[in-house]
Design brief:
With 403 residues, this protein is of the alpha/beta class. It has two domains: 130 residues, Aspartate Aminotransferase, domain 1 (Alpha-Beta Complex); 234 residues, Aspartate Aminotransferase, domain 2 (3-Layer(aba) Sandwich), CATH 3.40.640.10. The strands form five sheets. A five-stranded mixed β-sheet has the order 2-10-9-8-7, with helices on both faces. Strands 1-12 form a two-stranded parallel ribbon. A two-stranded parallel sheet has the order 3-4. Helix 6 links the parallel strand 3 and strand 4. The longest helix is centred in the last third of the chain and has 31 residues.
Amino acid sequence: MQKKSRFTNLPEIKPDPLFHTYKKFRESISDSKINLSIGMLQDEEGKLVEFNCVKLAEKELEKENLNKEYTVITGIPEYNENIKNLFFFDKENPAFKEDRILVTQPVTGGASLRMVAEIIKRFLPKKIHLSNLTFLPYIEIFQGLEICYYPYYNAEQKNLDFLAMKNYFSSIEKNSIVLFQLSSHNPTALDLERNQWDDLIEIFKSQNILIIFDVAYLGYAGGSIESDLYPTQKYAENYIEMLICYSSAKNFTNYSDDIGALLVVLNKKELLIKLKSHLIVLARSLFSFPSLYGARVINKIITSQPLKQLWLQEQKEIYERICKTREMIIEEMKIQDLKNFDFEFLSKQKGIYLFLDLNEQQISKLADESFIFSASKGRINLTGINKKNVNYFVKSLKTVLNN
């Protein structure tokens, strides 16, 4: 008897390119292999960074012998309050003083973006504006919406094309929805400066634009959490409505225990209650309940002064290391006389990534011949480079550039 299946004609799709590259790295047996693809933090020895503050918090939680009861669908109230205070550290901010901020706890930062996509599909204009060189998973997350691309990266001039971006936003329809990565733009590593964020305020106000901020690398671009949060503080002061999607994965090095947060800043306090009712229904249907454990760890760190200070210090050490690593790579490029790079372009980049703007053939050659695994367009995770492998990395890079 012939066996049949209703899925016979189901087409196979290509795997996620980033995780496929990471899989190739793990399967490689080369002693020279370097993982520059996925954005997990590595130390000078190439080992995964796990903050000591997290380990200490976990030990304290273990002693408390807490149960694993279901929590509130929108998340542990204490966690939500801690995240609110972390993001809105200036208690004089009008959004904070007027209690116009709602925080919910999804299962991950990606889940908060997924919830936002559903809110847009159900209640808002079904169109979203992304940067012209963007984080590829956005395409799947916002599938079903009309996706438009605003000018961001100018490949010819190797810069952030702010004038074209500004003109674009001045001409789009009112009530549009625009997504920004708050800091450490992935993949270009190019961020707006404070004066540029300021220049957009009146445009966003006059066009009544809703901003979605994706926040995955808080504190690693400007050197502190407060510095990276400048746009959200400034926009809240100016009554620009925002949906802020936070991931804790890099902030707390909890990776697969990533605990998300969705912060909603509206201009009318009474609308938060209505929106919260829909977020509860969405959360129940999308992931049922958020995680207790990850949120408890973060609560322990934020509410313990010694642990919080240790956390901030460990974050600062990561920031300082990526700055020194970027300088080290540029210096090694100059020593080896790489002629195909604008070093000023590389030095202007911020955060844990370095954007090399390579083509697919060059990326494949790096992986196949030198066992150096990077993301699309040659976006590399800086923390994968250290004093031991920087010479080999630049030498390998030089071979694919035909210097």
